[in-house]
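Render this sequence as a predicted structure.
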Amino acid sequence: MSDIFISYARSTEAVAKAAADSLRQAGFKVWRDDELPAHRSYSEVIEERLQNAKAVLVLWSAEAVRSQWVRAEADIAREAGTLVQMSVDGTTPPIPFNQIQCADLADWSGTADHAGWKKILDSIGSLVGPTLSPSAPATETPKSDRKRIIVLPFQNMSGDSEQEYFSDGISEDIITDLAKVSALDVVSRNQAFSLKGKQIEIDRLGADMGVSHVVEGSVRKAGGRVRITAQLTDAENCNQIWAERYDRELQDIFALQDEISKAIVAALRLNLLPKEKKAIEERGTSNSDAYNLYLKARQHWISSNDSDSGPLDTVIRISRQATAIDPDYAKAWGLMALAQARLIVTFNRKVDARSAAKTALSIDPDLPEARLALALLAAGDSDFDEANREVAAALAVDPESFEVNKVAARIFFQQEDIDKAIEHYEKAVAMVDGDYHASGMLLTCYEAKGDTDNSNRTAQMTIDRCKAALEKDPGNGGAYGMGAGGLAVLGMADEAREWTRKALLIDPENQSMRYNLACNLTRSLHDDDAAMDILETLFQETGTALLVHAEADPDLHRIRGNPRFQKMLADAKERASAQ
């Protein structure tokens, strides 16, 4: 699919064409409605392209403001965090789009050096990522003998959304298996899961992502049995090469995953090397119950948002059950250590994360989760040399991991390396679209750099993610706390204060949430006394790790020179060092 969708009113078609041409010259893949296929309905194609776009460029004009199509498309993009706006005739975007930065291109003649157009390119670049070089388009690149394959997330057909963790886990394991085959170039988990829940045209997927083959499937888990369907399709001609349905006992899940991966390799007419066959068969555990528990624990970890200690306790409890079943399950030990380390550095809990981390590393010396746990603990003690070594080791093993990128971003943030923090937070928010904590931290980074466009983009992203979390759990104080920061950045001060009030009413003892509220009060609402009121109480309860974080946090720059803040921080550090 194309990376950029252009929305416009018919009277500004010439400007839309100029924008599309300029974006293509910059190396971006662009779609606008002059490319509608004759055999499909307008609304179906528009919805599909909007859902798959990484950036939606809306051209506001007097006619566009009156157009229900343009407003609907802009609203979808706003909710998805992909909206980029330009005014082509001086028209101000209507509510609520006027809360988001809009570049003025009323005098634009299509040139690339226009200041407003440069802002558009910067915003789109931050959403889409690196572009193809205009001087060396993909069509001129010689074809490789290696087959490039994407494994789309398998559908959960269990009739229970709580089983989503299992279908996601199966998909991830097949991606991991195929990545071990030297003759295959496998699209990363990050890119593949960005397509989850979206309508996919396989031929377009082949053209846009350069894949030769696509794997799709579904998973139905009920009781002690599992049914998996899988198929392999040629992306060039959409012919189905292989398909199979498997009905097995859950205890046979590992043999079944091996069978699927090897069947895909065989259908591609590739030969597995002995070491590749052995690598595919390596699962970390031979116990299906332990494996199921690990997948469940990891789902709780991913959805925890670092905003409440409850989900972390759940991760530890489930991981402990997995290690009780299989004491040599390194991944379960590593995940337990990572959750315990989070409890220590974020909620000042007195738990032992090092034991679980060391046990994990004694089984698998390269395990990223265990390295990340040790990195968090080291950073909490201000030992950033050790933290950086552990993060580097984790990145070397799995640079596309959600956990690795989020912890790496935190470690760089605490060393005031905002550019590196942004790099890794951007990857993290792209991997898990429900993580409002990562988007909130990314907002702090862009605010620190004075990058208004990206601040507004990530503020809206954070609000949307927090609202989605609150729809599932109206008592989520952490979501209210982080969302208040996004509201304040977009100028909605009254709403931000109301969310702050609700957060403190719902979860007054939540240390992470209270810290985030204080940051927002001083950074965006400029209520320094209210921020220090919260921090004064919080600093009396917290440990060293939060104080290390606070000393580097740019959100607190407004009050850093305030004598009251300096005293409460000094007193807190003295208490923490005496413990």
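Summary. Residues 37-41, 132-144 have pLDDT under 50 and may be disordered. Residues 452-472 form the longest helix (21 residues).
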